[in-house]
User: Which sequence fits this backbone?
C-alpha cells in the first residue's frame, strides 16, 4: 500500500487521518507509545510521551525510509509477536495495520497483551459501507467478468467498524470515540477530488457513518482478581429463632392450689 498512499486519494486519506490522530492522541499521557505499521504517516507527532517507537511489519521500499525521525525509533517486527513485555506500553497506534495483517485477531490480542491497564489503542481503517467500498466491490465484480481495475490496493481487506467494536469488547476494551471521514467519491484525479470537497462538509453532518475511513480510540479495562480469605462464607443462620419467655414480676400475687382447682 506504500505506492497507493503516494497517489492523490492516498494523500487525501493520510491528511485526514493525521488530523484525527493529532486531535485524539495529543492528551494521551504515559511513558511508552508504539506505532505499528505505515511509515507514511507519523501518528504520534502530537503525542508527548518521552519514548515513542515505530515498528514496521516489513522492510520499507527504500532504505532511507527506515531511518527514524526525531524521537522515533524504527524496528521491524511481526504484528502477532511484538518484542515488548506484558503490560509495558501506554499507547499503541494501528494505522491500517489490522487490514494488512494476515491474522488481525492475533494482532489485536497481542496489542491487548502489551498494553497496561487503562492503556489506549488507536485504530485507523477503511469503511466497507462507503463510496470507496462500493467502488472496490464493483471493481472486484467487473474484474471477475473480465474487466475493471480496483480502486484500492489488494494487499488487505476491509474490516467494518461494527466488527471491530465486537473484537474490542471481547478483549476487554472500552470504546471511547470513533470518527468518520473522507466522503469524496473514489476518483484518482486531484482536480476531481478538489471539485468534490463540498461533500466532506455535508457528509460530516448528514451521513457520517458512510465515510471512507474511520479512526477508533479504545481503552483497556481489565478486571483484577478479588482476593478472599478463609471467612469468605457468611455465618450460618439458625433455622428457627429462640422464643421469648416472659418473666413474672416478683411482686405479682400467686395463686393457691385451692384457687387453681376447677369449680
Assistant:
Amino acid at each position: 500500500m506504500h505506492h497507493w498512499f503516494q497517489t492523490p486519494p492516498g494523500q487525501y486519506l493520510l491528511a485526514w487521518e493525521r488530523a484525527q490522530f493529532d486531535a485524539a492522541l495529543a492528551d494521551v499521557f504515559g511513558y511508552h507509545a508504539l506505532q505499528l505499521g505505515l511509515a507514511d504517516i507519523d501518528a504520534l507527532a502530537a503525542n508527548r510521551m518521552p519514548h515513542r517507537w515505530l515498528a514496521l511489519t516489513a522492510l520499507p521500499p527504500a532504505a532511507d525510509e527506515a531511518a527514524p525521525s526525531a524521537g522515533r525509533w524504527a524496528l521491524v517486527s511481526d504484528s502477532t509477536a511484538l518484542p515488548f513485555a506484558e503490560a509495558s506500553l501506554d499507547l499503541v497506534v494501528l494505522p491500517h495495520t489490522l487490514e494488512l495483517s494476515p491474522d488481525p485477531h492475533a494482532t489485536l490480542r497481542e496489542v491487548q497483551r502489551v498494553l497496561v491497564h487503562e492503556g489506549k489503542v488507536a485504530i485507523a481503517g477503511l469503511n466497507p459501507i462507503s463510496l470507496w467500498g462500493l467502488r472496490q466491490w464493483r471493481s472486484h465484480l467487473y474484474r471477475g467478468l473480465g474487466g475493471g481495475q480496483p480502486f484500492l490496493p489488494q494487499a488487505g481487506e476491509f474490516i467494518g467498524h461494527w466488527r471491530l467494536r465486537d473484537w474490542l469488547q471481547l478483549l476487554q476494551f472500552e470504546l471511547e470515540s470513533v470518527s468518520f471521514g473522507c466522503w469524496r467519491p473514489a476518483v484518482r484525479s486531484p482536480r476531481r477530488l478538489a471539485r468534490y470537497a463540498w461533500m466532506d462538509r455535508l457528509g460530516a453532518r448528514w451521513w457520517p457513518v458512510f465515510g471512507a475511513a474511520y479512526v477508533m480510540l479504545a481503552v483497556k479495562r481489565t478486571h483484577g482478581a478479588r482476593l478472599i480469605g478463609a471467612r469468605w462464607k457468611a455465618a450460618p443462620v439458625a433455622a428457627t429463632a429462640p422464643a421469648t419467655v416472659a418473666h413474672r414480676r416478683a411482686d405479682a400475687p400467686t395463686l393457691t392450689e385451692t384457687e387453681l382447682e376447677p369449680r
Summary: Residues 4-220 form a domain with the Rossmann fold fold (CATH 3.40.50.150). Confidence is low (pLDDT under 50) at residues 63-71.
